[in-house]
Each structure stands twice: as structure tokens, then as C-alpha cells.
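Q: Here's a chain of 150 amino acids. Please give me its 3D structure as C-alpha cells.
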Amino acid sequence: MCEQHRTEFALQLSGAGRRGVRSGPCKPAEARRAVERAVAARCRAADTPCDADALSDALLVASELTTNAILHGGGITDFRVDVLEPGTDVRVSVCDRSAALPVVSPPVDQQGRHRVGGHGWPIICRLAHDVRVTDLPAGGKCITAVVPLS
């Protein structure tokens, strides 16, 4: 898991992330657009410029979370993005059908060949200052990452 970040496992009591329920983006590009809209709206409301590097980090985290849910989690069952008050962080939550926890793959396989991919979870852990994995009552999990915007 994220060795440098707190990762919490808890039971989510709401109905979010139920199997077969899709709300929000189902593709990484749609997730990035949702994050971009939420952050831009916060910047307009606060009448402050958005930090392009911080936004880029948040977009990458959203993209990696959704990609991992599609590739390893059986698909996205729920997606949420919130800009936290006072607007210094963005919280991205992606739920999927798998109860399996994220793992870091070794960079090389047993034959010593370099693996393609396997960088998503380390990227998420590096860019987010809080990562939580929540078991869902109907099965599956929800991963929430909080990325600083400044």
C-alpha cells in the first residue's frame, strides 16, 4: 500500500458504490474533465488563479484511479470529486467491484524483464497526501485520494 501515506480501511455505511450502479464518469478522460470543472469552479468562486501544476497532479490521480478501477477492479461503480474548504485540496473517490486491495508490482518479472505499467498506485500514493480504501457493504471498495491544490 502507500507506505508514506495513511491508508485507512473502514466499512462505508452509505449505498454509494453498489454493484451495478454507475454515477459519474466511466472513462479516465471523463474523470479528468469532472476534476477540471470542479477545480475551475472553485478558482472562479474564490477569484484566484488555479495552480496549473497542482491541477495537473489532481488530473493524473483521477486518471490513475479510474484506470485502475477499469483494469483491476471490474469497472467503476461510483465516482465523486469534491473541492474541500477552504479550497486547498481536491478529493477524488472511485469505487469498483473488487474487494482486492491495490498492490505495487515489482518493476521486473521473474525472468528479469521490465514490466509495462504498474506505476498507477505509486503515482497516486506520491501525489495524494491522504489515501483511504473503504470496503463497501454490497462488495467492492472505494478508494479516496486527497490531492493538494496549492
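Q: Can you summarize the key feature?
A: Residues 1-22 have pLDDT under 50 and may be disordered.
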